[in-house]
Amino acid sequence: MQHKTVIKVRGYHLDIYQHVNNARYLEFLEEARWGYLEDTGDIQWFSQHNLAWVIVNININYRVAATMGQTLEVYTRFSKVGGKSAVVTQEVRIAGYDAIAADAQVTFVCLDQKTGKAVAIEGDLRQRLEQHLAE
Fold first, then answer.
1. In whole angstroms, how far apart are CA 126 and each of 58, 63, 81?
2. How confident is the model at residue 1 (pLDDT cuts 50, 70, 90)?
3. Is 15 an active-site residue?
4. What pLDDT does 135 receive?
5. Alpha-carbon gap, residue 61 to 79, rounded angstroms
6. What is the mean pLDDT of the chain?
7. Residue 90's beta-bridge partner residues?
8. How much is the pTM?
9. Percent helix, strand and coil across the chain, each rounded to 5?
């Protein structure tokens, strides 16, 4: 499943050069991941299973500057489920333009909230995550 989150660029998102500050893109990506998890019911499922997502790596490419007043569309989808980690691919597009402002590969592990340790992605957890690949 690919999920879309819409974000309007505001003045407080900008840096001295009047385009979106690089650190803000990380916030936009996080907002989109939360929206994805809410819309799929995963927040509730993970909570019921005492699991949490923990980001362990983000690789981001900045492509085109976004500026105040533009609308950004952040597309989020699962791209890989491994034995210990999974990858979410995200793309920030400038609405109305044929332009990608940024794209990222976000790797996370699932943490057992009781032990504080990463768990293997197997059983119900694997099934839950892999269903996102098929959609």
1. 21, 33, 8
2. confident
3. yes
4. 60
5. 17
6. 96
7. 76, 104
8. 0.94
9. 30, 40, 30
